[in-house]
Amino acid sequence: MLQTHLRPIAAVLACLSVPACFAEANTIEEITVIGSKLEQTLMEIPSSVTLLDRALIRAAGINDLRDIDELSPNVSISQLGQVGGSYISIRGIESNPFIVNRAALYVDGIPYRDPGSISIKNSEQIEILRGPQSMLYGANADAGVIVIRSRQADTTSADIYTAIETFAGRQSYLAGAYLAGPLSEQLSASVSLDIEKGDSYIRNITSSINEPGEIEDINLNAKLRYTGEASELNLHLLYNELSAPGLYEQEFPALNYQDYNRLYASGYNANVEVGKYDIANDAPKNTDETEWGLGLSYQYDLDEHGVDMVFAYRRIDDSSVGTDLDLTAAPFTAGGGRGDREFWSVETRLSSQRDDSQLNYMLGLAYYRESLTRQLSTLLGPGGLDQYQYAPEQFTENQDLSAFVHLQLPLADKLKLEAGLRYDRAEADIQQQAGSLVVGPGLVFNYVALNKDVEDTILLPKLSLSYQLDDIGQVYATVSKGYLPGGYNLVAGDKGEDIDRRSGSYGAEELWSYEIGTKLNLLNQRLFLAAAVFYIDASSWQEINILTAPDGSVLSTTLINSDASVESKGVELELDYQVNEQLNLRLGLGYVDSSYQTYDFGPSISYAGNDTKMIPKYDISLSGQYQFNDNWSARIEMHGLGKAALSNDNSVYRQAMQLWDASLSFKQGGLGARLYVENATNKRYAAGLAYQNFLFGNDGVVYAPIAQPRTLGLELSWSF
Question: End-to-end CA distance of the chain, in Å?
Answer without folding.
Answer: 32
